[in-house]
Specification:
Elements lengths: L2 H25 L16 E22 L5 E20 L5 E18 L2 E18 L7 E13 L5 E15 L6 E13 L7 E14 L5 E16 L14 E15 L5 E12 L3 E15 L4 E16 L3 E18 L3 E14 L2 E18 L2 E16 L5 E8 L8 E5 L3 E9 L12 E4 L5 E6 L10 E8 L5 E16 L7 E16 L10 E12 L2 E12 L4 E15 L2 E15 L2 E16 L4 E14 L3 E16 L2 E14 L2 E15 L1
Antiparallel strand pairs: 1-2, 1-34, 2-3, 3-4, 4-5, 5-6, 6-7, 7-8, 8-9, 9-10, 10-11, 11-12, 12-13, 13-14, 14-15, 15-16, 16-17, 17-24, 18-23, 19-22, 20-23, 21-22, 24-25, 25-26, 26-27, 27-28, 28-29, 29-30, 30-31, 31-32, 32-33, 33-34
Length: 682
Amino acid sequence: MSSRRLACAVGFALGGILLPHAASAQQGQGPIVFGRQDKKQALKLENFQASAEFKYRRETDSLEPRDSPKFESTEDRFEELLNLSSTGYMVHPNLVDLSLAGQFGLAQDTFQTGGQSDAADETLYAWDASATMLRNSDTPLTLYSRRTRDTVNRQFGPSLDSTITTTGGTLDWRSKVLPTRIEAYHMDQEQTSLQATDNYTLAQDTFTWHSEYQPSSRHHLTWDYTFNRMSQTSASQGGQEFFSGSAGEFDTHDATLTHSVDFGPKDANTLTSTLNYFNQTGQLSLERLQWMETLRLKHTDHLETHYLYTLDQQSFSQEPLGSSDQTRQRGQATFIHRLYKSLITTGNAGVQTLDTNDGNSFETFAGLTFDYHKQVPLGTLSALLGFNYNQQENDSRSFQVVTASQTFPTDAGERSIVLVGQNIDPNSIILRDISGMTLRPGHDYAVDDTVPGQVTITRLFGGSIDPGETVQLSYALEPQAANTTTTTGFTLGGRYDIDRGPFKGLSLYSRYTQQDQTIDSDYPTQFVPNSFTDFTAGAGYHIWDLWFGAEMQSHESAISPFDATRYYARLAHALSLNTNIAANVAYTTLDYPDPDNTIDILTISGQLQQRFSREFYANATVLWRDENDGQHGTTRGLEEQIELRWSKRQTHVYVQFRNANLDTDEQNSSFQLIEIGIRRDF
């Protein structure tokens, strides 16, 4: 209820109590009863639900290095759990609305590690509780606390026990003028494995603030601020602490103020101004102030122009390398012209300056792209033609730290990102996930700088990096002589999709890219121009629920040339209303002439979903990977997972089985997990 209604309700309640007593005192008579009011309960809980649960889990992890004895760990775990949940309120649902759930139980563990046996008993508890005060008012406040227990499976790696405890609160201000949400919470996360090689802890304090202000229909102002204080510990091979001192501790402040205004005929034009301040402490310290102005003008239905100005001031400090300050300014103008629905022409041009504490850089760039789409006999024809020009005039530098975002491939075979540059210090590379947590070299990723002019970063199986994941990357550049780098290039591509006739479902495509780069310097031996030609051609065919495809790529370059051949086949089919199957096969061959190396990668995956009845459900997946690398050896992995679930009225039974094997030239590893659970609802 609103604050006014609450005040009235309190006033009437007090009046109902005090007025009869006042009348009684004046007249010497008993109290005058104006009406009967039901007694409010201080606390009311309803919708009770309860269940009893029993779990058994057996996990076996085995590591067998080529030159060391086999190391095996086994755990047998029994859990007896009681689950309770309820909803309710205090005094009135609009005063304090409650949602409560808890899990309590006991666990008995038996361990066998390296020939040694041990046993332990544990008290288990988890919960999810929240209380929303004045939920219908303009300022509802929600306090919450939750603790969850889960199992995390890493591809071809061990299963991890994960426990996350979060306690905090959210305040909403439902103002029509300035709607605001403020949230603060503390989170503790713990991951453990049988052999302690993946043990991980995280303590995080977070405060967020979001507000919006719209003085008119054309103006919109947004404010966002986030504070994080994080502390992490992690174990490396052998169970020793990976982080020491303050390496795993850092704070971040991230504040953004954005203003946008629409103007012109039908408000078709937009000016957006953004101011961002970011500060991070720790092993990698970063302070950044960024100002961005974006102007979008729509001249006609077929022509629009964009204008961008960016000011980016950054100060880096990376232990033990040193620090670097830089100011980057960038101005860019872009036009987009649409000729009917067939041709889209995009052009851009601009300049960029980079001022650092030991050298400057001036860059000019331009580009022009034609994107063509046309309905042709039997299908659709798409074509792309693009040109680009870039020139950089760079002063000599003694030190520079670079930060950037990189995304690992989603392709089933390839799992590396490549940094091109002569002066990259591979020992300075630091990777963080999107939350800012530091990833572990040798466990989550590996760095290879054997090829001149490039550094390759490969995600490792069993680590914390998933396919397609974006990471924050930082590294240092070693001293570099003054130079002028000029880059020109063009891209030509086409695609023909046939959707009618006897070849319906067939797609043919090709793409050719050429880049020419020259580097003018008094020390030419320090540089290798990144000139290359890249040609890709392929075909795909779709019939029924099947997809087939083949592709060849030839990349001729002074830096890491290669030839690639890729084949794939996919199936996604519903055999019946209760049965679904899916399968993927991919084969990739990568040939590198310098240094001479060939990599063959075969991946096969399949999934079966079967509902035998309304009560009985099954899901099974399998994944096979066979990788032969002429330089780094052979990797073979097999992973199977089966899940069975049966429910009958208030009884629920599930069985989960997981088996993962990963064999390399250095070691063989296997991980098995079986879990059986029975739950009875009351």
